[in-house]
TrEMBL record:
The protein's name: TraR/DksA family transcriptional regulator
Disordered: region residues: 1-26, 52-76
Zinc finger residue extent: dksA C4-type: 108-132
Alphabetical keyword list: Metal-binding, Zinc, Zinc-finger
Annotated Gene3D superfamilies: DksA, coiled-coil domain
Keyword set includes Zinc-finger: yes
Pfam families in the cross-refs: zf-dskA_traR
Domain Zinc finger DksA/TraR C4-type intervals: 103-138
InterPro entries, sorted: DnaK_N, Znf_C4-type_bac, Znf_DskA_TraR, Znf_DskA_TraR_CS
GO molecular function: zinc ion binding
Lineage: Bacteria, Bacillati, Actinomycetota, Actinomycetes, Micromonosporales
Presence of the UniProt keyword Zinc in the record: yes
Length: 139
């Protein structure tokens, strides 16, 4: 696997991090990969629903009154925005996987402690540990 020539740190010095074991990193990777597959399946499902709604519109719209057509258009728009938000989440997970490869994923941005594997599996885009997240929300 090719390594990037330089690692971008955006002028920010990485704080000293406690080491995360390779086994833990693998666990996070597996959790993220599973999440990505799940999201992709969900995305495909949504796309096929959109296609179906589209087809419905083309085939039975002749007999529909205007209200029906409006409902179907609304449903299709809902599905499209759902598809977009799933796509956004897939991107987040993929970015998380990239950062994991660089060793910059899974550390709390506030206190620098490792974020528990379970939390990362549930919220791949988490950048704070539970404690810091709670502090943030209380402000
Ligand atoms: Zn923290």
């Amino acid at each position: 696997m090719a390594k990037p020539a330089e690692t971008r740190t955006a002028g920010r010095k990485a704080p000293a991090k406690p080491a995360r074991s390779a086994a833990e990193t693998e666990k996070i990777r597996a959790a993220l990969a599973a999440r990505r597959d799940e999201l992709r399946a969900e995305y495909d499902q949504t796309l096929s629903e959109i296609t179906e709604l589209q087809r419905d519109r083309l085939t039975d719209s002749a007999g529909d009154d205007q209200a029906d057509t409006g409902t179907k258009t609304f449903e299709r728009e809902q599905e499209i925005s759902l598809a977009n938000s799933i796509l956004e989440r897939i991107t987040q997970v993929e970015r998380a996987l990239e950062r994991l490869d660089k060793g910059s994923y899974g550390w709390c941005e506030r206190c620098g402690n490792p974020i528990p594997v379970e939390r990362l599996a549930a919220f791949p885009s988490a950048t704070l540990c539970v404690t810091c997240k709670q502090l943030e929300e209380r402000r």
